[in-house]
């Protein structure tokens, strides 16, 4: 199935979305797409078929988000913990990822036309070279698009993300680029995989599980959380509509908390990045980008 799905909204769903768009619509929505394996068991199909149906649902949900005017979406596609599954399932999932990212590249004209930027966030050193190559190509081709953003958390956990951020900061202190006094929340945030994004306004988890599963733990401190019992492949436009409605009900409280935090930060001038720390994070981003390009080049040579 295509990454760009056709509009599947009913007229009643379209009206509901138009009504909600008159209120506050989240600018960044994150999804923990849980329930693919349970869906496979429920419908009597192989696990990999459940994952395929999960991807098909992702394409549909992305279209609904565009209809809502939600400019940024982050999805939890593959956790580092998933590597602990059986060799067969991991191999099948990597094959599926390869197939879908190749399809994405085949559809690059559609992505460019719609201005969609694709970012893969995670520890890609664990990803097979042939899959990583396609991911890097997708990011490079769409990096200048700015109408909509899709962040795919792949080979990701928050603990790994924060650990690597700490390592980078430690290296910066040891090299003399920054000092211990430069280390604060803002600097750490700029060293995360998600440094290009604002924190999510709304996080949706399917399948009835009420936990984060090590997803965007740093970034979700002030995020509205919405849990639903529906399995991911069965997630409907109505489920997204209910989630956005729930967000709007929580909006006033969320904004009150955020404004208090902003006020506290504005009083603490030391929390802002200075010239030294700005130079450090810019060098870090360039280093990461070059590392991906080098890995990609090495893969192509092989």
Features:
six-stranded parallel β-sheet; single chain; alpha/beta
State the end-to-end distance.
30 Å
Order of helices and strands: HEHHEHHEHEHHEEHH
Q: Give me the count of strands.
A: 6
- DSSP strand content: 5-15%
Q: What is the number of helices?
A: 10
Sheet with the most strands, sense and barrel status: 6 strands, parallel
Which spans of ≥5 residues are poorly predicted at pLDDT below 50? none
Helix content: 40-55%
Global geometry: globular
Residue-averaged pLDDT: 92
Side-by-side strand order of the widest sheet: 3-4-2-1-5-6
Instruction: Give the C-alpha Rg.
Output: 20 Å
Structural class: alpha/beta
Q: Would you give an account of this structure?
A:
With 302 residues, the protein is of the alpha/beta class. The chain contains ten helices and six strands. It has helices spanning 11-20, 36-43, 47-68, 87-106, 108-114, 129-142, 158-175, 185-190, 237-267, 275-301; strands at 28-32, 72-79, 116-121, 148-156, 202-205, 224-227. It has a six-stranded parallel β-sheet with strand order 3-4-2-1-5-6, sandwiched between helices. The protein is globular, with a radius of gyration of 20 Å. The two termini are 30 Å apart.
Nutshell version of this structure?
By secondary structure, the chain is of the alpha/beta class. The protein has helices at residues 11-20, 36-43, 47-68, 87-106, 108-114, 129-142, 158-175, 185-190, 237-267, 275-301; strands at residues 28-32, 72-79, 116-121, 148-156, 202-205, 224-227.
